[in-house]
Amino acid sequence: MQTLIECVPNISEGRRTAVIDRAVEAVSGAPGAALLNCSSDEDHNRTVLTLVGSRDGLKDAIRRLYSVCVADIDLRLHSGVHPRMGAVDVVPFVPIQGATMDDCVVLSREIGEAIATEFGVPVFLYAKSAVSEQRRLLRNVRKGGFEGLPAKMRRPEWTPDFGPTSPHPTAGASAIGARPFLIAYNIQLDTPDVRIAESIARAVRESSGGLPGVQAMGVFLAARNQAQVSMNVLDFTRTPLLRVFDEVRQQAARHGVGIAGSEIVGLIPQAALPAGAEHALKIENFRPDLVLEHAIHAHFGN
Predict the structure, then answer these.
(1) Under CATH, domain 4-178 is a member of which superfamily?
(2) For residue 41, what are the CA distances in angstroms to 100, 167, 183, 245?
């Protein structure tokens, strides 16, 4: 059986197409890894790449990605509505075929050490790769953002797992780890009032007593003049997207607003999208190759 691992690096650039193109070209040149999807957003100022490949292929692809991002992204000049602490902000690995979560943990640690050594970027291991409980959640690792890194990293409990004990001056730090499938799912409201999106986000996220495994924040999309509830669904088997959509719809109705549409960022497993769900969820950017299995079959034939 061919070994396939998914890697979904998030880079802190969603506006400068030349930089995004260089990043795409870099990872596309790695033998043994295929770029299945590239999703950029100018308001979030972030690009999500979805790669699938072998261990060695992904190692090469991630090294190539850092070579572009460390050179071309200066977080001192960066702004966007999405939290970030690094030029390459987060690099998660997900087992797909012929690989286990433990395999992905080992891979994340090998890549983290190599990246820190070659590029001088501090690396924090998170999720299943974390060596302490406080580093399991990405929001804990990233709290304070790029601007807060110098003070944060002076605290002994936030010494990085690999690399220098102070942030890279322009590329910050990275979180690298292994995790299960995560669905990045955003819902656009038919209002520009970000306070409503923030209120809905508080109501639906697990940390505020909302839906299990849902992380959410409210943001304003200047390019669309719309408020958005931006979410990560950590376990779609516990909390299906249809339930997330319905809860956001109900909360929005309490504020007298509706849902303008939604979007998937990156790829989504087939099991998370029952037949016809793309219409019920008002997914604006849906196409068949946003389904992970379809994209893998198109590239690998299995």
Answers:
(1) Formiminotransferase, N-terminal subdomain (3.30.990.10)
(2) 32, 25, 16, 21
In this prediction, residue 276 carries a pLDDT of: 87
Query: How far is it, in rounded angstroms, from Cα 147 to Cα 221?
Result: 22
Q: At 251, which amino acid appears?
A: Q
Low-confidence ranges of the chain (pLDDT < 70): 1, 302
Domain with CATH 3.30.70.670 in the chain: 183-287
Residues 6+ apart with CB under 8 A from 135: 124, 125, 126, 141
Distance between CA 289 and CA 86 in Å, rounded?
Answer: 29
Tell which residue, 85, 2, 76, has the closest CA to residue 46. 85
- Token pair of 25 as six digits: 């070209």
Q: What is the pLDDT of residues 178-196, one digit of tens each?
A: 999 999 999 999 999 999 9
How far is residue 193 CA from its own chain's centroid?
25
Give per-residue pLDDT as tens, 258-288: 999 999 999 999 999 988 899 999 999 999 9
Residues 6+ away with beta carbon under 8 Å from 295: 36, 37, 50, 52, 267, 289
Residues designated catalytic: 82
Q: What pLDDT shows up at residue 282?
A: 96
- Measured distance CA(205)–CA(17) in Å, rounded: 33
Token pair in block for residue 105: 């943990």
Coil vs helix vs strand at 232: strand
Treating both helix axes as pointing N-terminal to C-terminal, what angle do 101-119 and 55-72 enclose, rounded to 10 degrees? 40
CATH assignment of 183-287?
3.30.70.670
Residue 253 CB burial class (10 angstroms; 0-12, 13-18, ≥19): exposed
